[in-house]
Design a protein that fits this description.
The protein is an all-alpha fold and 152 residues long. 74% of the residues lie in helices and 0% in strands.
Length: 152
């Protein structure tokens, strides 16, 4: 069995793929903050009095465009953070390169698609649900493999 040092090396294609997709998803989540700010300025919806650009504006918490982006961002936090943890642990199980690379790819692409169809260009269901369940399914599969590897 490969040692931890070899598994957590950029010479390992599984770890290299994990690092790539983790980096992509970090950037994606950071961009969600900017997308929230863009929506706030577009709709003049600010949650703090010091952010108001005019004395005529009032603090507002319920703009549907801002809240949609915030919900998408929260969904990222609820789903991408577990992927970061389990993806790294999955790498330590020395999985099949083909399967691992495609699981990481599926999670990354599905989370990007989820954001696009939820917060950028709103597309009716089941588009968002499909993207959500692809990423969830891949993450759950990796979690089960980690559990099985640790249990036996």
């Amino acid at each position: 069995m490969a040692g931890v040092v070899e598994l957590l090396s950029l010479n390992n294609p599984v770890f290299k793929s994990y690092v790539f997709w983790a980096g992509v998803l970090v950037i994606k989540m950071l961009l969600m903050s900017l997308l929230t700010a863009v929506q706030r300025f577009k709709t003049k919806t600010f949650a703090n009095p010091e952010d108001l650009m005019s004395p005529k504006l009032k603090v507002k918490f319920d703009d549907p465009n801002v809240e949609r982006v915030r919900r998408a961002h929260r969904n990222d936090l609820e789903n991408i953070v577990p992927f970061f943890i389990i993806g790294l642990l999955y790498t330590l199980t020395n999985p099949s390169v083909f399967l691992a690379v495609n699981l990481f790819r599926a999670v990354g692409i599905a989370r990007i698609v989820h954001t696009i169809v939820y917060a950028v260009v709103v597309v009716p269901q089941p588009s968002r649900a499909l993207a959500f369940f692809v990423a969830l399914g891949a993450t759950v599969y990796m979690a089960l493999q980690v559990i099985l590897a640790a249990a036996f």
